[in-house]
Amino acid sequence: MKVSVPERFGRRMSIGPFEDPRDFLRFAFFACLAGLATIIVGPWAGLLVISSGAFLVLVRIREETLLAHLLRRGAFMLFRRGGIPPTGQLFNAVWKDPSGRWWNFYLREPYPIYGRAPEELHAVALRLTRLLATAPLQEALFCRLARRWDPRALFPSDGPSGSPPITAYRRLIESSVRGKHRATLMLGIPSNTPHDRLIEENLFLEGWKRAEGRDLRESIRWITSAG
Questions:
Q1: What is the mean pLDDT of residues 85-113?
Q2: Is the pLDDT of residue 83 over 50?
Q3: The model's pTM
Q4: CA angle 21, 24, 25 (to 5 degrees)
């Protein structure tokens, strides 16, 4: 979590066009590189380096420089490519980790927060916490996944079909979600506890569904593989 420090009244922290003193230091670093490029290659190389540095440091997107966004993206791609490969055994409905524990995974749509009072949101979180506290769990996994939309899941196979309006509407929905992702909450619970069935029934009442088959494989791959 990043918390920005407000500027002191009557004294700006910015230096010229640089809104943050660190941006000025980064630009100075690019200026040093430009000087080396000018000596080694030529003036055109130094001009290219200093222009690129100014562009990366001065252009801001969502209150952050373009350089910060590129560094964060690079760190993310490096982590994904160098991630830990999948371990353990994956079955149709459960996952066995390397230490021999069995895990059940549950999925649900994110809890809606728009238009709901803080007290209501607090009650939802407290209800889930109390539900997990009913079993002697030493740990649980709770995360937010980005899953690709499956147009087939929007229209059940036994749903109405055949009429031109329904067919056109189905094509419209499929084209609008093709290639896009949606947020999904995932909850992982060790299954070697004596209250698994009770917890599962309570989770079903809260809108959670058991992750099985393809859903389970995609969830495990998302959190363990390099993608």
A1: 78
A2: no
A3: 0.54
A4: 95
